[in-house]
Structures are given as C-alpha cells and as structure tokens.
Write a structure and sequence with these properties.
0% strand; 166 residues; 65% helix; mainly alpha
Length: 166
C-alpha cells in the first residue's frame, strides 16, 4: 500500500465510508473513469434513469461502462461454478467415449504382446506411483520369474543348440 498516496487522498477528502483510505481497487476504478472521462460521460447520457439510480459507486459505474464497451456477440466470462459444470460435462463425455471404446474392444484395450516393455513399465509406475513398495515387490517378482524362465530355457536347450543355423 502506498502510504503517502493514501494519506494525501484522506487529507483531501477521498475516504471510504469508515473514514479511512479507499481500497486500491476502488482507486483503480476512479482512475479508469477519469482516464476515459469523455467516453464515460457520453455513455452516461445514454443510460436510462432507472439504472442510474442504482449505480452510486465508482465501482458500479466503471463495471457497467466496461460491460457496455464489449461487443454484444462476445461471450461473457464464465463464473467459477459454470466453469466447473463445463469441466464436469467434458469429463463425462470423455468417460462415455472411453466406455464405448472399452465396450468395442471387448473389455481389453491393453495388449501385452503389442505394447512395448517401456510403455508397460510406465503404465505400471503411473498406476502404482503412490505405492513404491508395490513397485519394488513387482520388480523382485519379475526378476525371480525371469531367473526361473532362464533356468527352464537353459534346461530345454542342450548346450550348443542356441540357434540352429542351416
């Protein structure tokens, strides 16, 4: 807060209802109105009297003047609730699409033979990200299975018959 500006404004009578310095946002509204005084005055003459009676503050006048400057076909900014509803609608659409794809694939979109080991590893890590101990247990299990598979493969192939060339 600029204390000297606040003190000067209070000294010259620019105060809030409590007698203290005005909020920075209200000062900003006043400044915007003063910067565009001619435009605001021209607009004010076109405003209906019943609306003018309700606009007592610089904030109300500034807000309504800025609103009048927007193009009529320009969409209004969505409220936080409207943004949440829109996001929810998008997520529901994604869920419906995913369910349709899953149904079309007979419930199995994940083909271990067509998916690379790096991708499988990333999917597993992403799924178990919050459970590092489960990832470690999976790695230990995979290493044990690999060791057993190598033993079985070695037993199934006699020495010297790794790849029969013709």
């Amino acid at each position: 807060m600029n204390v000297s500006l606040d003190a000067a404004l209070v000294q010259f009578g620019f105060i809030n209802r409590g007698g203290g310095a005005m909020q920075k946002s209200i000062r900003s509204d006043y400044k915007a109105l003063l910067d565009h005084e001619a435009d605001v005055r021209a607009w004010w003459t076109k405003v209906k009297e019943d609306k003018k009676r309700h606009w007592h503050s610089a904030r109300a006048i500034s807000k309504n003047w800025r609103a009048s400057q927007r193009a009529p076909d320009e969409p209004k900014r969505l409220s936080p609730l409207a943004r949440e509803r829109e996001r929810s609608r998008q997520l529901q659409e994604q869920l419906v699409e995913a369910n349709e794809r899953l149904k079309a694939a007979d419930g199995d979109l994940y083909d271990l033979l067509k998916t690379g080991p790096e991708t499988i590893g990333k999917v597993i890590v992403d799924t178990l990200r919050m459970h590092p101990s489960k990832i470690e247990k999976l790695i230990t299990t995979l290493k044990a299975e690999l060791k057993e598979l190598k033993v079985l493969t070695k037993a199934a192939r006699p020495r010297g018959e790794k790849g029969v060339k013709q």
